[in-house]
Amino acid sequence: MADLDDIRDGQSYGAGIPPPDQKFFLKGCDSMDWGMKDRMSRIFNPKTGRTVMLAFDHGFIMGPTSGLERVDLNIVPLMEYADCLMCARGMLRTVVPATLNKPVCLRSDAGSTILTELNDNVVLDIRDACRLNASAVAVMVAVGDKKYEAPTIANLYKAVDKGMKMGIPVMGVTAVGKDMVRDSRYFGLAARVCAENGANIVKTYYVEGFEKVVSACPVPIVIAGGKKLPELEALELAYNAISSGASGVDMGRNIFQSDSPKAMIQAVRAVVHEGLKPAKAFELFKSLSKRKTSK
Ligand code: 5RP
Question: Which of 20, 32, 70, 239 is most buried when burial is the number of CB atoms within 10 A of its CB?
């Protein structure tokens, strides 16, 4: 029974004080529902508007590639430095400690391995993404591939419909076919196609002229690291992408294949969140690596 004898009238209405400006900190996200915004704020740091996603989903297509032979030994120790984890559901369920409480961008398409042709024809049931408390799902799109462009765009489209129902953002991952020219024209097209089809985040590759790719894409862009580079070059790549307007990195091999992955992820963080110049970040990398070896 409700207590009726001491109902106090409200007194503190703050009349004349306008409500706080609720403009969201990421582009293209103002019209999102609360749950989506909450998930985006778990992936992207609201203070910097940026993210360091740690990608270790490669095994779903490549098997135990270098650095990912033992995710429990090699990747779990890096997770505390990541803003978000990107992986496939099998590795998440079996190896990633749920107690970490890190947001997860779940790889949600499947169907290919390196032994066959690209053929991502399965999309994760969105209920499984909910069960796994995913903060986003990632689906690859093969723009320009005669055979797989249409089915992969359809995968993205369906994933967005399902994600919208559940409040889960979708990251469109631009795949680059062997015959594609890796330039800003191609990536500008691929990123825009992902966003126009409803992707809430786009993952693509840094190239010269990247400002144009970012400007023409109405949602946040993160870049993949690509093949392993010398550390200074990888830090330059991250710096150039951020300076061109990228909202973060979703980096794998350039972190976990480094001689000192823990030092590398911390140096990448300094570039992404503090805008540290590549030379300084490389100094940081070297000093953190030394600390590790002298222990
Ligand atoms: C492939 C992916 C990978 O996660 C991605 O390429 C990131 O890893 P790397 O930095 O090693 O390129 O999404 O589709």
Answer: 239
